[in-house]
Design brief:
Length: 427
């Protein structure tokens, strides 16, 4: 299945990049075990470029792989339980909150539903050819961290003092809810209807494409009517665009979540090994996050200072002032043939300018090496898109400069950051 100009990567679908082979590893819900992260770290240091990339849907990537090492990497990933179905290698995007089950304000802990959904997806060949970007989401509230509209989304609501999920397709509300006990059945049935409707109209199997078909939502609701109940309520969760960074309470009074800043979504093998070891030592809970970060959850308060100190010494700040918060960049010209700029280097230069400062609410910056904008995040405060003659610079969705130098673009973004902080302080 082609996505854009290239095959979408998986473990069994390695893609050739400028720096070697690239693979993507499915981690449903971002729920990763410590031993699994340790395995990936060892593979990265032994057979890849020494880093682990976290994707915007909380999966993992390894790059810089040599062809002769690929089979050993695949065997190790499979042994770690990260390739449970070869047929469903790229049916991977199951999204939930990275603090699911840890958040004191959560209405429903969706983790068991995430695991059940994943098992049933893999047991059904009807889903083998889902679009690699097709995403399922189950949100327990009160916050939703998805970067874009998911193809099928369930968001928790409290209806008549009972737990239900509000169903949306491609970001469009159905106006109906489903009981928790029927949530997985509903999700899978909705996915099959999306496949059917997309095939009938020769459209990509994506929720946002399906809902444009006249009468499609009614057909989906009719097919699922035995599972759905009309609802006057809107979903209770609110979209959070910015990353959580710092120390957060959990459902256990004596334990907290430690959430560091992961620069440009890239962990070094050494950092990943330390996180895995800390989760094991303190019986913690590891998660990958859709802001391309990581959560070290359920850590005893007595261990926090020591862990935070070690993380800081390894380049993982927990105070949100490392300058990288809110900044995203694609691979850049060191790793991608299509890129026209060293966007990661420019992102690091911008972060250096912002180092030590707080971050304005909602602050996001996206740097792309070409017009394909592979790492694009919708609604970024500032967008820098490289072209043959320089950067195109967009601020709040409005073009302010074309073919400008990196120095000019970074100056404008740094000045914008300062102005937003000043405006916030004046209010």
């Amino acid at each position: 299945m082609r996505v854009g100009e290239h095959f979408c990567p998986g473990v069994l679908h390695a893609v050739q990049a400028k720096d070697g082979l690239l693979i993507r590893i499915r981690v449903p819900g971002g729920l990763i075990k410590a031993n699994q992260l340790r395995t990936i770290a060892d593979l990265s240091s032994g057979f890849a470029d020494g880093t682990i990339e976290i994707t915007a849907r909380a999966n993992l990537q390894l790059r810089g792989i040599r062809t002769e090492d690929l089979s050993q990497i695949v065997d190790s990933i499979s042994s770690a339980g990260l390739l449970p179905s070869q047929q469903h290698d790229r049916v991977r995007n199951i999204v939930t909150s990275p603090i699911a089950g840890l958040d004191p304000g959560e209405l429903i802990d969706p983790r068991s539903l995430i695991r059940q959904l994943d098992r049933r997806l893999q047991s059904d060949t009807a889903f083998v050819n889902l679009h690699p970007k097709f995403s399922f989401a189950i949100h327990g509230g009160p916050r939703r961290f998805s970067r874009d509209h998911d193809d099928i989304s369930l968001e928790s609501v409290d209806l008549n003092s009972a737990s239900h999920f509000h169903l949306s397709i491609g970001g469009v509300s159905s106006g109906f809810v489903v009981k928790r006990s029927d949530a997985v059945d509903c999700t899978l049935a909705a996915a099959k209807m999306c496949i059917r409707l997309a095939k009938e109209s020769s459209l990509p199997v994506r929720g946002k494409a399906v809902v444009t078909i006249p009468g499609a939502m009614k057909r989906i609701i009719d097919a699922l009517s035995h599972l759905l109940t009309p609802s006057p309520l809107s979903p209770s969760s609110c979209l959070v665009n910015e990353a959580l960074i710092g120390i957060y309470p959990t459902t256990q009074n004596d334990r907290v979540s430690i959430i560091p800043s992961v620069s440009l979504g890239r962990l070094t093998a050494e950092q990943a090994i330390y996180l895995a070891a800390s989760a094991n030592e303190w019986e913690g809970d590891l998660r990958l996050a859709p802001w391309r970060g990581v959560v070290l959850g359920s850590i005893p308060k007595s261990a926090v200072d020591n862990i935070v100190g070690w993380l800081h010494s390894m380049g993982l700040s927990c105070d949100g002032r490392d300058g990288f918060r809110g900044i995203a960049a694609c691979a850049g010209n060191n790793e991608c043939e299509a890129s026209l700029a060293d966007v990661r280097g420019d992102a690091a230069s911008l972060a250096q300018r912002l180092f030590g400062h707080s971050v304005p609410s909602g602050w996001t910056v996206n740097l792309s090496g070409c017009e394909k904008q592979c790492a694009r995040r919708h609604g970024a405060t500032a967008e820098l898109v490289a072209g043959p003659l320089g950067y195109t610079l967009n601020i709040e969705g409005r073009r302010v400069a074309s073919d400008c130098s990196r120095e000019f673009a970074l100056d404008v973004v740094a000045a914008l950051h300062e102005n937003l902080l000043s405006e916030a302080a004046a209010r």
